[in-house]
Design a protein that fits this description.
Elements lengths: L2 E7 L7 H11 L5 E5 L21 H12 L2 E5 L9 H10 L12 E7 L7 H13 L3 E10 L2 H4 L9 H22 L1
Parallel strand pairs: 1-2, 1-3, 3-4, 4-5
Length: 186
């Protein structure tokens, strides 16, 4: 049985290097793992308890929760916007944290990776995402990290899926997520 990992990408831009990194994860996922990119974060409304009512949850949020509910684990891809994670990623975490104590993230392994233009590759944003996922109930893999600096120049002429160093590091993170998932299921 394959470990199902749901990838959430914090950038909505079509040419996003973080989206390309997620595509690389899906393409190079080790045997026994399946990385699925969630499409549709742009349509998920900002979290608001007034609209999070059983039977009338917005369709895009319900699709996110359904996909997350079917996942065994999560892999979040975060660029860094003004020193922190993008609102779209935080919004997804907020929707998946509810209902409190029983959200789709609860108890499931999660890792955060990413790339950014700056010299540290978005580590502040990724740290913030780890914190939010942990508070939301996810089992954050604190040691499964990948921060790739200089995204604009590094990936100017090469897709992350074709960068051997990136692929090696990314598949190691996926392997760690799969191992944690198997350990949690045992």
């Amino acid at each position: 049985m394959s470990v199902r990992i749901l990838a959430l990408v914090g950038s909505l831009r079509a040419g996003s290097h973080n989206r390309q990194l997620a595509e690389a994860a899906a393409k190079h996922a080790p045997t026994g793992t399946d990385v699925e990119l969630f499409e549709g974060l742009a349509e998920v409304p900002f979290y608001n308890e007034d609209i999070d009512v059983e039977g009338s949850v917005p369709a895009a949020a319900a699709r996110l929760r359904e996909a997350a509910g079917q996942a065994d684990a999560f892999l979040l891809f975060s660029p860094e916007y003004n020193g922190t994670m993008p609102a779209v990623l935080k919004n997804a975490i907020d929707w998946l944290s509810r209902p409190y104590g029983a959200g789709a993230l609860t108890g499931k392994p999660a890792a955060v990776v990413g790339t950014a233009f700056g010299q540290f590759g978005g580590v502040w944003a990724q740290d913030d995402a780890r914190k939010a996922v942990g508070i939301a109930g996810g089992a954050v893999l604190e040691d499964a990290k990948l921060s790739i600096p200089g995204s604009v120049t590094r990936f100017a002429e090469i897709h992350p899926a074709d960068d051997a160093e990136v692929v090696t590091s990314l598949t190691e993170v996926i392997r760690q997520v799969a191992e944690q998932t198997a350990a949690a299921a045992a």
